[in-house]
Design brief:
The structure holds two protein chains of two kinds.
Chain A (H helix, E strand, L loop, with lengths): L11 H5 L1 H15 L23 E3 L14 H5 L5 E7 L12 E9 L8 H5 L5 E3 L14 E2 L1 H8 L8 H11 L4
Antiparallel strand pairs in A: 1-4, 2-3, 3-5
Chain B lengths: L6 E6 L2 E6 L4 H7 L23 E7 L1 E2 L4 E2 L9 E3 L4 E2 L10 E3 L3 H16 L15 H9 L17 E2 L4 E3 L9 H8 L6 E4 L6 E4 L11 H6 L5 E3 L12 E6 L8 E7 L2 E7 L12 H4 L14 E3 L2 E3 L1 H14 L2 E4 L6 H13 L4 E2 L20 H6 L12 H8 L5 E5 L10 H6 L1 E6 L4 H4 L3 E4 L8 E4 L4 E5 L12 H13 L8 H11 L16 E2 L14 E2 L2 E2 L4 E2 L5
Parallel strand pairs in B: 1-8, 19-20, 19-21, 21-22, 22-23
Antiparallel strand pairs in B: 1-2, 3-6, 3-7, 3-8, 4-5, 9-10, 10-13, 11-12, 14-15, 15-16, 17-18, 17-23, 24-25, 25-26, 27-28, 28-29
Classes of the chains: A alpha+beta, B alpha+beta.
Amino acid sequence: MAKVVDRKPLTWAEHTYLPQIVGGLKITLTNLFRKKVTLQYPEERPVIPDGYRGIPTLVKDPNGREKCVSCQLCEFVCPPKAIRITPGAIPEENTERAHIEKAPQEFEINMLRCIYCGFCQEVCPEEAIFLQDTFSLSGYSREELVFQKQKLYEIGGTLPDKHFKWDKKRSAAHAGNAH
Amino acid sequence: MSQETKLITINIDGQDIQVPAGTNVIDAATSAGKEIPHFCYHPHLSVSGNCRMCLVELGTPMIDRATNQPVLDENGKPKISFMPKPAIACSTKATPGMHVKTQTPAIKDCQNGVMEFLLVNHPLDCPICDQAGECRLQEFATDYGRGYSRYIEEKNVKPKRTQLGPRVTLDDERCILCSRCVRFSKEIVKDDVLGFIDRGSYSTLACYPGKKLENNYSLNTVDICPVGALTSTDFRFKMRVWFLKPVNSICTESSVGVNTQVWSREGQIYRITPRRNDAVNDSWMADSGRMLYKQVEDESRLKHYQINGVESTFEAATKAAADLINSGKVAYVGSARMSVEEQFLLREIAEFKLGGMHLVYHQQQGDDLLIAKDASPNLRGALVSGLIKELPKTDLAVLGTRIDSGNVDTLFVAGEDLTKVGLTPAQIAKVKIIYHGTHTNATSEKSAVLLPALTVFERTGCFINQQFRIQKFNTCVPPTNGIRADIEVLSQIQSQVKGEHYKLPNIQAIWEQMGKRINVLAGVTFNSIPDDGLLLDGSDFSALTFCEVKSLHYNVRTSTSTFANT
């Protein structure tokens, strides 16, 4: 049912519209001299807080070595199936890394599929994949946005490592048994 | 085992179950749907009892020594006296009235302790270990373990990748010394190559000096290894097992008909493992059979329908094949590698457009275990489906003389390379060949009509093994390149030859036809064949002398399958 709303008739001052114009100008002028909240994106970039979930990247340890051992748990857990890994073996001739045994031959993440959920980072037993601060991607083709291993390492860079698990393994192997 | 095995009643965790007398307690518990965790016990190997994981509390009815009668409690039930200490279930046979407790606090404590000891020197390799996902140590660590480690000392270091043989890689750190592989080599293959060296926590699995684990059954040690110590060099680091989908199949290597599982991901096969069937292959298969999946992606695969060397379509090529069959004096070269259904369809074609049916009896060296002398999986199927009445010869000399005398001008060939089975190039040049096979060979290159076929991994059907056991194989990976299933090709040719309207074949319908026409298959449908096969009555063919002599569960002297439990 329609409801009749009573409208008050305008006063004389309101008929002139001046108080409203002055009030509006007051807001405009105060904000004109305030500190700006907008950024001149993309020239200016926002500060990304810790724990922000940008695109997933592969990281190296402080010695610049690949951390991923291609266990494929991220591939398994990825809800939109954006990750695809081809596992590979590290040959025995590689004395520096032979004790790690396994490393990805290929590692690709389809950034068009990625939903930035962070499951891959959560599941990684080697702390090799992190969602870092890159948040805006663009490209001219779909293939361009399927990131390969090399590109993922470039974006990922190096993160501090507390454990150095594989170094410990190697030193244990060198030390041998007391036997 | 005698025919009528005596059933006895035992009690597991308060539940009475009936098992044959003398059953192993672990197996008895499994049959009741209960799990007694174990590492070293394997149903097809001798009991070694070294892992101590299957500790249970055992009790037997109390016997009054004076009267030799069971002592009864106030309810009139026999009193059970439990042993003061836990015993291992794997070396205990079920006896009447036995009581087993698997869930008491003492047992849980035992299991917890055993797990802790096993994990003391176990490396934290799960992210790179191929066994992860099907590892008993991993499973039992979550089911029975403590959940965290109290061990802060240095772990043992052992060799990480020893090549035990051409196909097996050993990671000694992961080994829990269960000795399954040692017992398998000694008892099943009778090739005593493995043993432990050094003592205590330094114990290490190794080959005897100067020997290698290189027998044709070496990869079974990888299957039975409860941890990731023994790994297949072929499958190592290829794919994690949780991505792989297992499909039941049959090994085509010989007429033993080993039951297998084919593991694939997204249309690519990664490995083949044996599937337990106590009447055929127990839990084993030969290494050579595991490599057969490589034929699927082989470069010499035939990929296109061709007429006179020109690429064509399925419809046109089958039409051309049917026209050739109808127009000339035709002969057929069937195959004992076709499934029963395909053989039946070929038989129907040959019955409509008469022509001699020739098969080749492929024979090989064979062994006493799982490789029979007959190198094809389905010769019995050719007999049962009515494709042939007699055993074939080892070559096609008869067909050769028929060609020479001008009685044959068209040859339908199912997957045989004619140059290798006794036909001369001159004889082959005299006939027009319709070739229906999987891979390129000298015959396919000479063919007038080329119909690519599918490998056993891409189609569905049945094989009949040397025991006349009919066993199903299923499509593991989809066919590539739009190649149609062999039964589609044969039905299409059949309807073209007969001038009938083509109906897309369906395996159930073919089985209906076979049930009507073949006595031993009456009442059998494709869906009614169980996964472990169905033993058919082979007495119609008892007069024939097959080439097989002895396999794991087959002996020509008794001429039936043997189920002896040795």
